[in-house]
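Below is a filled-in request sheet from our internal design queue. Each sheet records the structural input a requester submitted and the sequence that came back. We keep these sheets so that new team members can see what a complete request looks like end to end.

REQUESTER: design group, bay 2
PRIORITY: normal
MODE: inverse folding
CHAIN LENGTH: 126
BACKBONE (tokenized):
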């Protein structure tokens, strides 16, 4: 079993990462009863955890590569995902529609995405 790291940010989200594939889970503490998990096959799974964990839906976020990072916007209905050179913005209020896709123009893999805590309309990546 690979080690798992957990981070709690100021907005009350918990991010769990494990191993080289960096499977990510994010959980909302402010009234939302769901979390998302990005997997090594490029799929994002949405789960409800009201009384028990129940899968609500799954969708392909990347083809032929794993999800390297995810971030949740604390003020809007957005989740960012990164996979290889791509960053995608998902809107859960629109049925998890991909509303924007950013393709990197460099050879490095995007390893982390985040929303700027001072202005959540700005996204950051490395």
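RETURNED SEQUENCE:
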């Amino acid at each position: 079993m690979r080690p798992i790291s957990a981070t709690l940010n100021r907005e009350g989200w918990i991010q769990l990462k494990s191993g080289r594939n960096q499977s990510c889970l994010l959980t909302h503490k402010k009234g939302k009863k769901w979390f998302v998990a990005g997997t090594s096959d490029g799929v994002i799974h949405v789960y409800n955890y009201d009384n028990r964990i129940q899968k609500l839906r799954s969708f392909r976020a990347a083809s032929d590569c794993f999800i390297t990072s995810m971030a949740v916007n604390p003020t809007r209905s957005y989740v960012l995902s990164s996979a290889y050179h791509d960053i995608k913005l998902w809107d859960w209020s629109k049925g998890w529609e991909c509303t924007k896709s950013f393709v990197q123009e460099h050879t490095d893999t995007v390893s982390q995405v985040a929303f700027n805590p001072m202005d959540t309309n700005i996204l950051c990546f490395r």
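SHEET NOTES:
- The chain has no helices and twelve strands.
- The radius of gyration is 14 Å.
FILED BY: M.R.
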